[in-house]
Amino acid sequence: MKNKRKYFAPGTLTAPVPPAIVTVGDFDNANMLTIAWTGILASTPPKTYISVRPSRHSYSMLKENGEFVVNLPSVSIAKEVDFVGIYTGAKMDKFEKTGLTKQRSEKVAPPTIAECPVALECRVCDIQPMGSHDVFVADILNVSCSDSIIDEDGKMRFDKADLLAYAHGEYYSLGEIVGRFGFSTDKVKKVDKTKKNPEKTVENKKKSKNTEPPRKPFYESAPRSKQVKKKPTDKNKGAPHGKRRAAK
Ligand SMILES: Cc1cc2nc3c(=O)[nH]c(=O)nc-3n(C[C@H](O)[C@H](O)[C@H](O)COP(=O)(O)O)c2cc1C
């Protein structure tokens, strides 16, 4: 496909990104700021980063105790996310102003924000100057999430989290799920579908015994010649779904 393109000067245009609320300090002396420049660096050991301007009030707090929490907000607190990213904690208590609730984290001193469905507790292991911002590389020590996004199998359901996204100066909600990891291949077949779709639990299957079976997705009815068969030496075989290794 040929496509006419317009070119711009280099810019920070990766999108969407999570406009995370990052908490710093300790429970009684905490601050928070909005950080859009964050992401994952490695899965083993799990590492993340946040990119912070030295002029931020939070910067010295971060350097002091070397811990932070990345709180992923839902759409319902988009205004608070914006506020936390506009005003400085040097002049006000942003928890008091926004009404966001501090909750004790399990492994680090900065609090977790109760209204955020997902939170990553992190400890800094390296600081790299990048120019305007310094990158705080950190080990993810713990992950927590609200009960409201845990399903009956104890799995996290991000489709229930209504996470907020940020793209080029605008806040968005996420749209429909358009696929799951590996859905373009035959790998999906190896997954125990009851784990991914609670609607298909044995109990629910029994309930819907007399109803029409759901139509097969296109990849399951692909011609046999096009399906790659794998030996049953799959390392993930038998492992609980949460422990399966995803190719990244
Ligand atoms: C959507 C959004 C994303 C932001 N991302 C970053 C970021 O990645 N790094 C950064 O240093 N500041 C970022 N900021 C700005 C800080 O959040 C802002 O300067 C904040 O007031 C600093 O608070 P503090 O002075 O209490 O630390 C962002 C602001 C908004 C609204």
Summary, kept brief:
With 248 residues, the chain is an alpha+beta fold. It is built from 5 helices and 11 strands.
Overview of this protein structure:
The chain is α+β, with helices and mostly antiparallel strands. It folds into 2 domains: 20-173, Roll (Pnp Oxidase, Chain A), CATH 2.30.110.10; 186-239, no CATH class. The chain has 5 helices and 11 strands; from the N terminus they run E-E-E-E-H-E-H-H-E-E-E-E-E-E-H-H. It has helices at 57-65, 78-84, 94-98, 193-196, 202-207, and strands spanning 20-25, 30-35, 38-42, 47-52, 67-72, 102-103, 112-113, 118-129, 134-145, 164-167, 170-173. The strands form 3 sheets. Strands 2-1-5-8-9-4-3 form a 7-stranded antiparallel beta sheet. It has a two-stranded antiparallel ribbon with strand order 6-7. A two-stranded antiparallel sheet has the order 10-11. The longest helix has 9 residues, at 57-65. Bound molecules: flavin mononucleotide (FMN). Residues 19, 31, 33-37, 51-53, 56-58, 82, 85-90, 133, 166 line the site of flavin mononucleotide.
Defining key terms:
disordered C terminus; globular; 2 domains; alpha+beta; 248 residues; single chain; 12% helix
Which topology of the largest domain does CATH recognise? Answer: Pnp Oxidase, Chain A
Q: How many DSSP-defined strands? A: 11
Strands ordered across the widest β-sheet: 2-1-5-8-9-4-3
* CATH architecture group name of the largest domain: Roll
User: Which percent bin holds the helix content?
Assistant: 10-25%
How much of the sequence lies in strands comes to 25-35%
Coarse structural class: alpha+beta
Number of helices: 5
User: CATH class of the largest domain, anyone?
Assistant: Mainly Beta
- Silhouette: globular
First-last Cα distance? 27 Å
